[in-house]
Predict the 3D structure of the following.
Amino acid sequence: KTIIKYIKRHYAERIMMDDIEKHCGYSKYYLSRVFKETCQKTIMGYLNEVRINKAKELLVKTDLDIKTVAESCGFECQSYFGKVFKKSEGRSPLSFRNFKEN
């Protein structure tokens, strides 16, 4: 729960496993193992899920350009954002926005 709260609070920032380790007070190896056992996904996988959900919201509810959406959701690189988004949603961010508008 502590990791989930931390991610939801800081998803728009650059988050490293070392940050989560310091915040929780346990080793990153222990946290990774327990999180995966509990949530059936990696910590970074969960972080990307939270970021993509926020990006989908921004794509539908705002006119922000794709680069700004990516940055607002914690993705430092627009191409990585596009790759993660497409893997999650099966389409590019722009295609997602255009599909939702119709």
Notes: The chain has seven helices and no strands. The two ends are 38 Å apart (CA to CA). Residues 66 and 95 are 11 Å apart (CA to CA).
